[in-house]
Amino acid sequence: MRTWFWTLLVFVAAVGLALVLRDHSGNVLIVAQPWRIELSLTLAVLLALAIFVILYVLLRVLAWISGGPERFRSWRKLRAENRDYQLLENGWINVLEGRYTEAEKELAKLLGRSRSSSRRVLAGLASARAAHHLGEFARRDEALALAKESAGTDPRLHEAVATVAAEMYLDQNRPQDALVLLQPLQDASSRYFHATRLLLRAHRQLRNHDRVYELTRLLLRRGVIDKAEAMQLIETAASARLHAAGADGFKSIWGDLKSEERSLPDIALAGAAIQEAEGNYDEASKILEAAIAVSLEPRLLSAYAQCPPELVARRLSKAEEWLKAHPEDSSLLAALGNLCLIGQLWGQGEHYLVRSMNIRSDMRIHALLGNLYDRLGRPADAMKHWRLASGVAGVLPVLPVNRALPAADTRGDPTLIDVESLPEAHVVKQPPVAPVAASAVGFTDYDSHEPVPVTVKPSSGNPPATSEPHTDFDQYFDSAPIPGVDLSQTSDRPHRGTDKY
Questions:
Q1: Contact (Cβ atoms closer than 8 angstroms) between residue 343 and residue 313
Q2: Of 42, 407, 411, 448, which residue is least crowded by CB atoms under 10 Å?
Q3: How many whole angstroms separate alpha carbon 408 and alpha carbon 477?
Q4: Is 383 inside any structural domain?
């Protein structure tokens, strides 16, 4: 549209000029001795325009010819930049796709030919990341040093090198080296959110709970960290701070926490433990009750169920209110049963514990029932639940009763010596040492210091049965029963030649 407009404008100007020149039929006289040139006004104007156009074109051509070397240099520079961008793009794509060896090759070409400091820094950082993922930490450090050198005095490039290097140091579990790089960025501005997150990660590795708490609060206020993740970090850090501060620093740390943070399980448990250690059971109860009102965490309920007998009535009434809203919560029923045992309310405690056991078979519930029945003089029931508690704890396999295990096959054991080729030998018996194997139940120490000859005979297959009585004792015992031996004749009955137990 613009082209048509200018074309129309040129035609209008040409028509107007033609009309003006037609009405002005004057002449132009040019006197240059010895010549005298006389032209019409129209021809003189047209010649002037033609000369202007010719001179303009000529000057433009001369300028283009004189600017040839500069244009050639610009073309070469543009071509080199395009090659650099292509190598840098391919290198980063290979790094992101996990082809680290190919990435190092592409980036090495770029580092060898590029003259741009920014591209050299980017290539060095990408090469360092590729070497880091390959586990070549020496090459990674060389690439980082090259990137730092190429950054020169540019502050942004220096910050980029420091951030990438700190992140890789944290992956290598070197938080102290990362802190040296990240702390200046944090001191310069708290708006370096990525650097702040890396700084938080470094302090977590160093277990600096005070700094973890502060940085998590900062990131949460800026909205650059998920709230669930932030609350988990605050819970861990604040509980560790409370344990470290003890009763002396409890008030300042607890006062700095928000109400929703005080209800987190680890924080509530730490605060309640400190108050109970100081004898402030009422304060501990309030802390645990506020946390349990938010979440029926089993750990909170277990801690709430541990109290002196004089507090049982108050805590029972509070727990029974929670039970109205959560009648099928196994942990709450177990806590009520535990409180009843402390208050010696045996019947009500059995009722709560049996209800809890019917919902979930838990080791702690069986143990509590075992203790309850032991106090009530019901040893059979107590032993039953203690056995169930140990089974739940260890998930042990149930073996058939009175069934012997097969004998251990020692034929393939390279540490044993084949005695078939050995001649008969006499062995002097040393004073017996009490064995530690499980099969040495009937071991008896004889006060005999005379050597007892032992004849070693070649044997093949199973050892032949003999009716001769045993007059000596084995020095070694196998934990597996011997095939063909009646287990009822072992340590359950008196051994011949020994005193009865």
A1: yes
A2: 411
A3: 12
A4: yes
Q: Is residue 387 part of a domain?
A: yes
* Residues 87-97, mean pLDDT to the nearest whole number: 92
Comparing CA positions, the residue from 55, 61, 113, 53 lying closest to residue 88 is 113
**Cα 317–319–322 angle (5° rounding)?**
115
Residue 419: the pLDDT is: 41
Q: In terms of Cα–Cα distance, which of 468, 469, 436, 431 is closest to 450?
A: 431
> Given this model, what pLDDT does residue 24 score?
65
Residues 268/300, Cβ–Cβ less than 8 Å: yes
Q: Please state the domain count of the chain.
A: 1
DSSP-H helix ranges across 330-378:
330-342, 346-359, 363-375
For residue 374, CA distances in Å to 169, 333, 383 come to 58, 20, 8
d(CA 144, CA 138): 10
Please give the full DSSP string across 54-74, using - where no structure is assigned.
HHHHHHHHHHHHHTHHHHHHH
> Residue 269 pLDDT more than 70?
yes
Structure tokens belonging to residue 388:
């169930």
Q: Which CATH number characterizes residue 326's domain? A: 1.25.40.10
What average pLDDT does the segment 179-188 reach? 84
**pLDDT band per the 50, 70, 90 thresholds, residue 176:** very high
- Percent of the chain past pLDDT 70, that is, above it, reads 76
What token pair was written down for 186?
């944090």
**pLDDT at position 483:** 43
Residue-wise pLDDT tens digits, 386-439: 888 887 655 555 545 444 555 555 555 555 444 444 344 444 444 544 444 433
Residue type at position 146: L
Beta partners for 28?
Answer: 39
How far is the C-alpha of 297 from the C-alpha of 334, rounded, in Å? 12
**CA 193 to each of CA 159, 186, 229, 274, 430: distance values in angstroms, whole numbers, following the listed order:** 13, 9, 16, 36, 75
Residues 6+ apart with CB under 8 A from 354: 369
Which residues span the domain enclosing 329?
A: 312-395
pTM, full prediction: 0.64
| Count of C-beta atoms within a 10 Å radius of residue 216 | 25
Q: Is residue 443 part of a domain?
A: no
Q: Which of 374, 394, 398, 399 is nearest to 384 (CA)?
A: 374
Residue 43's pLDDT is what? 79
